Amino acid sequence: MHNILECENLSKYFGPVKALDSVTLSIPKGRIVGLLGPNGSGKTTLIKICNNLLTPTSGKIRIGGFEPGIETKKIVSYLPEKNYLNNWMKVSEILNFFRDFYDDFNMDKAYDMLGKLKIDANTRLKTLSKGTKEKVQLILVMSREAQLYLLDEPIGGVDPAARDYILETIIKNYSENATIIISTHLISDIEKILDDIVFLKDGQVILTKTVDEVRDEYGKSIDALFREVFRC
Amino acid sequence: MMPWDLKPDRPIYTQLIEQLELKICSGVYPLGSKLPSVRDLAQEASVNPNTMQRALAKLEETGLIYTHRTSGRFVTEDVKMVQKVKEKLAYELIQEFLQNMKRLGFDEKEIALIITKMAGGADNA
Questions:
Q1: What's the CATH code, domain A3-84+148-229?
Q2: This prediction's pTM
Q3: Residue numbers in B near A31 (CB within 8 A)
Q4: The domain over range B12-77 is classified in CATH as 1.10.10.10
């Protein structure tokens, strides 16, 4: 099967609000995709449906051929926009927790990344800064050998140096069969590592192209195009 | 180390080709030497590995690099070919320079004069 994620006329309404409005989207294996759009455009809603945290109002969604559920949780590694880790736990305890929970968790990878970012595994989460907590969360997610990574705002809260390291980590851990979907506002920081972009506006997909197609056809960066399309 | 200089308003793929050519011509990757892996090159340039892969495939098509089935990618040993690429890059640089100078209002004669003068000055320095 060629596509890891397929949506067909996928809609999600919250009362009268159309958070997602008939989204049809195919994302192939082995791609790094930027899910881009202003606040309230439906990025997080789409990612939550992929993780079975929301159920669609109508339409179809398949991940690796399955509807979101137990089967897809085995192959999807998800970084939520919010911190969900227990503050009383030590970093090492959370790593063990993830190892027990996910068959594809690679402990060596996790410790390697912790070391690079100079995070002591013996510290308790509540003593870590907000940015460091975000790094820990991203390490947990990227240490799985998943088929689909869904990263909701992965670099928003970390400093530029750590941001570079995180992007480097994404490039380094990229495997030809895995797809990474990154939702973010920080487009200029990530556009060089993306294959494709998906622009969401008011719950609808308004543009899907490769990064180089955009640069070629519009003569501008994704960041510049975004600012033009979504000018307030 | 020669940094990867990527502009935001042009396709990354074409810029990677140019930068790889430049690195080969300037000896960062000498004739006949082994190139780093796709992943390492992508990481160094902070770009998508698929894009780097495509750029390398294009250079392979032109013959500037070649793949050894088991041991990776290498720079060609063909001196003439590298010389040709060098000339192509020089031609592009000069074209760009001429365009900029004309925009400033100099005609070809004046440009030639300035260059001769500056080249002479460099000799004396």
A1: 3.40.50.300
A2: 0.88
A3: 50
A4: yes
- Amino acid type, A106: N
CB A222 within 8 A of CB A202: no
From the list B11, B42, B46, the residue facing A215 with the nearest CB is B11
Considering CB atoms only, which of B9, B12, B14 is closest to A192? B12
Give me the pLDDT at residue A141, please.
Answer: 94
Question: A152-188, pLDDT tens digit by residue?
Answer: 988 877 888 888 888 888 888 777 789 999 998 889 8
DSSP B46-69: T--HHHHHHHHHHHHHHTSEEEET
Q: How many CB pairs under 8 A join A and B?
A: 56
Cα–Cα distance for residue pair A138/A133, rounded to 1 Å:
9
Question: Are B9 and A220 a contacting pair at CB < 8 A?
Answer: yes
Tell me whether residues B9 and A224 touch, CB distance under 8 A.
yes
- Report pLDDT for B125: 45
Residues A79-113: tens digit of each pLDDT:
998 888 888 999 999 999 999 999 999 999 999 99
In chain B, residues with a C-beta closer than 8 Å to the C-beta of A215 are 8-12
Average pLDDT of the residues in A56-73: 96
